[in-house]
Specification:
There is one protein chain. The protein is of the alpha+beta class. The chain has a domain at 2-39: YefM-like fold (3-Layer(aba) Sandwich), CATH 3.40.1620. The protein is built from two helices and three strands; from the N terminus they run E-H-H-E-E. A three-stranded mixed beta sheet has the order 1-2-3.
Length: 76
C-alpha cells in the first residue's frame, strides 16, 4: 500500500485520485508520519439485485439425472 504525505497529496490530489481509480490500490495519507486518512476506490452498488450473481455459479453437468452409486436413506 502506497503512502503519501499530506502536503504531497494536497499538491497532486487529482492525479492521485486518478491513479487510485485506475489501479484500485488504496493510498494512505500521512501527516507528520502518522496515517490520518486512506483514499480507496469508490464501490458502486447495482441499481437492482436482479442478476447480481450472474456468472458466479459453475454448472457441472446434469444435476437431475440419477447417479451410478446406489444408496439407502434411513428414515427414523
Amino acid at each position: 500500500m502506497r503512502t503519501v504525505k499530506a502536503s504531497e497529496f494536497k499538491a497532486k490530489c487529482l492525479k492521485i485520485m486518478d491513479e487510485v481509480a485506475a489501479t484500485g490500490e488504496p493510498v494512505v495519507i500521512t501527516k507528520y508520519g502518522v496515517p490520518v486518512a486512506q483514499l480507496v476506490p469508490a464501490v458502486q452498488k447495482p441499481k437492482t439485485l436482479f442478476g447480481a450473481l450472474k456468472g458466479s455459479i459453475l454448472y457441472m453437468g446434469d444435476v437431475t439425472s440419477p447417479i451410478d452409486v446406489e444408496w439407502n436413506a434411513e428414515i427414523e
